Every structure is written in structure tokens, then in C-alpha cells.
Amino acid sequence: MNLPKVITDLINAQNNFDSIAYTNCFSENAEVFDEGKTHNGKSNIQHWIEESNQKYRSVMKPLEYKENGISSVLSAECSGTFDGSPILLNFHFDIVDGQIESLKVTG
After folding, report:
1. Using CA atoms, how far apart are residues 90 and 64, in angstroms rounded to an integer?
2. Contacts of 43 (CB under 8 A, 6+ apart)
3. CA separation for the pair 81, 69 (Å, rounded)
4. Do residues 100 and 10 touch, judged by C-beta distance below 8 A?
5. 32/19 Cα distance (integer angstroms)
6. How far is 33 from 9, CA to CA, in rounded Å?
7. Rounded distance, CA 17 to CA 106, Å?
8. What residues have CB less than 8 Å from 85, skipping those under 6 apart?
9. E-state strands within 1-107
10. What is the largest distance, in Å, between two alpha-carbon atoms of the chain?
11. What is the pLDDT of residue 92?
12. Which of 14, 21, 38, 73 is most buried by its number of CB atoms within 10 A?
């Protein structure tokens, strides 16, 4: 599967529970929507992913990737310490200049 570098970096950071490397995939004013909450800016995104890593220990296995301009969707099997693991999640990205501007996680 041919993924943009920033998404490959994000997956590697997630699978290594590296919240700093994960956060560095995002632009300064990026936005993440997950579990009904929006996280704005790199510091809030880092806080969110640190909590998520501690709570769920989630790892991602990419299954499919579709791209349309700056928007793309990655479907991945995610497993961790949460009920129903593993589950299929869709990661909706807007990527500008090699950084993630927005990420929306859906089931």
C-alpha cells in the first residue's frame, strides 16, 4: 500500500506509543475529532494521544487507503485494551504541505 510519508509516520508513532512523534505529524493549528470530542492545536492533540495511548494501547494495521486531492481516508484494523478489540476504523485526513490539517476518526 502506497501511503503518504506523514501517514506512515503517524502509524509508526501510534504503534510505538510515541506521542511526540505522533503530534509532529500535525500542523500547528490542526484539528482532531475522535470519540465525540474535538482537539484543536498541537498541544491539545498531544494531550489527547497521550491519554488515548495510556487508556487503550491501540495499534493500527492499515487495510485500505483512498485519496482525493488533500482529503484521504485510511481504513485500519485497530486493536488494544478496549471492548470489541480489534475494530475497523476510518481515519479521514486533510493533508497540506506534508502535515495533517485535520483528522476525523469514524467507525
Report:
1. 9
2. none
3. 34
4. yes
5. 14
6. 19
7. 20
8. 78, 79
9. 26-34, 37-40, 59-68, 71-79, 87-96, 99-106
10. 36
11. 98
12. 14
Place of cell 505529524: 25
The kind and range of the H/E element at 10 are helix 5-15
C-alpha cell at 75: 481504513
Residue 1's CB: how many other CB atoms inside 10 A? 9
Q: What is the pLDDT of residues 22-79, one digit of tens each?
A: 999 999 999 999 999 999 999 999 999 999 999 999 999 999 999 999 999 999 999 9
| Residue whose grid cell is 493549528 | 29
Instruction: Compute the mean pLDDT over every residue in the chain, rounded to the nearest whole number.
Output: 97
